[in-house]
What we know:
The chain is of the alpha+beta class. It has helices spanning 25-33, 43-54, 93-104, 173-184, 205-208; strands at 2-3, 6-7, 14-17, 61-70, 76-87, 111-118, 126-134, 142-153, 159-167.
Amino acid sequence: MTTSDCWFRLPPGFFPVDSDELDDWEERLNAATELVRPDGPTASGAAALRNLLSSLPEQGVTYAAFGLHPTEEGELLVSLLTFADVDTRAPGPAAAAARCALALAAADAGRVRERALVTLACGTPSALVTALLPAPESGGQPSGTFQARLVVARPSGAGVVVVDLTTPATELAAAYTDILLAVGQTVAFSDPDAPRAEPVSRPSRLLELQ
């Protein structure tokens, strides 16, 4: 998959949705869920996804996908994966990643569980922030929604890509964090499938001396 000059691989069980058409989420949720469970989403799963979408950042989102994973108990775990471009106005990639991560871990971000620098295959400065999001009008009390956020600096400049994975399945926070990090390991800022130029072989100067 690609979005805004950023390439990545979508994990199994995730279904892309046009970020400009998230208002039509119910039709797409039902269509995507039929691939997982023919009887459609549970009421609680649909309500949970509606809550996730209502809190979706409107600015800078370039990609969104639903995560739909059935359990052995017949329930449907729902999640929302988004990519967003953020301009930090920092002097360089390392400062950009640090500035954005600090902002994501601010006091109004909920109950922060983890803050860490991470190493990704793309090689640019990156950081992880996970938290229990605050419930609306709760005075900052955590809700039943878990969010893992990955900040990936672009190779140059002040821009970062923020990858969010949000779910009401708070008991599976560690598993969803692992999913997000796995997505992060596939992030690239050049097309990984583009044909590479073959190195030009030159004859050895020693042969010319023989």
